[in-house]
Known about the structure:
4-stranded parallel sheet, globular, alpha/beta, about 35% helix
Amino acid sequence: MSSIAEHLKKYPEEAGPDGKIRVSIGGGAGFIGSHIAKNLMEQGCYVICSDWVDNEFMKPEEFCNEFHKLDLRILDNCLKVTENCSHVYNLAADMGGM
């Protein structure tokens, strides 16, 4: 049994109408965010990623179910991408260049 299935067995209220856990990942176009998103999507979660840039190495359908290119410093945008989500991962940060 996968860890997602085990989690849903323990917390069935987290399943959406489609039976999947809805997860929102801010900063989802970044290296860490997109890899977390891809892993969660492969495990059966419905993944919503948001970022103000596109992922330069993967197409959105490779790592998430929905991709929203927007600024998460705006509250309405945050509310939009987290609506009905059971889990939210905030990896959005302006790094300013490495």
